[in-house]
Amino acid sequence: MKIVLIGTTAACVLGFRADLISALVEKGHQVFALALDFNPDTRERVRALGAEPVNYMFSRAGLNPLTDIINTYKLSKILRHISPDLVFSYFSKPVIFGTLAAVVAGVKRRIAMLEGLGYVFTERPGGSHIRNKILKHVQVTLYRISFPFLERVIFLNNDDPIDLIARYRLKVSKIDVLGGIGLKLSDYPYTPPPTDPVSFIFVGRLLADKGINEFIHAARLVKQTSPESKFIMLGGLDETNPGSLSKDELKALIKEGLVDHQGHVDDVTAWINNASVFVLPSYREGVPRSTQEAMAIGRPVITTDVPGCRDTVNDGVNGFLVPPWSSQALAEKMLYFVDNPEQIRIMGLQSFNLAQQKYDARLVNDRLMSYFI
Fold it and tell me: pTM of this prediction?
């Protein structure tokens, strides 16, 4: 078949769709990967996978109806020129407008995947701001328009179809739950976790929605009784986001000696290898890739009992689930590992076993490709 993948950035194509592209090409399909920002380097890397990179135009964030209509028409012209058998779109705006463009272009088969419901569906302490409620209403309305044109919608976790399809009574021909998007497990070999001292690692943008404030507050609580414990943060600031830590706040934390912040690093695996426990106190996820990586390496996980995150942990088996927004509950589970360091290896092995069963990219991509046939 001739298959078009519509995503957002070239980095997402290479970071999250590379294994799928390789698997599709290996099966003899012709693949076109659409993104907003291919450059000469990323184009060559996509071609090395066997796919054809194609740029298209769209605003990743915000809603400007006239601009979105114009860009949808332009995208439909690209699709009409390619004339694919199937369009597979992923992420919110490509799912909505990529689907509509495929309809206009006369593409007969259209499949979409939502890897999470995103910012507007995330619950926060204090409730949702009125702007967030308006954006959610607009997004649901756009899903209501586009979903009937899809032969199936794929979700990563069991909560998202309930919170979107069932709650808003959206019309969809078929719903599938894929689980995590998977990893090339050979890139994440098991390593025994270090436990002297016990260290906790957070990987993600330093945003409130990722639980960075709870991680910091829990670290401060743990340090009161276990000053030798270490806390590592990988991820960059995003000061354009109102929920981001500021540079001054981060500098103060580092000066205090509370955290070791490495910013954005290329070799996340090496840092997870050198940590004892993986921590993600996020408010909502699809199925977080960073947690899958930590599990594959053999690390116990402390994460929140919220959509997406709860799918990665069997509570008390390979880690712990804690209530969202609770630094105290998070600190208590951190201290459990400080007081019971032997459990780090035991629960880490359980994480490793779960990753082998659930997150092998070969198995996940076979399941995903079965939806295309």
Answer: 0.92
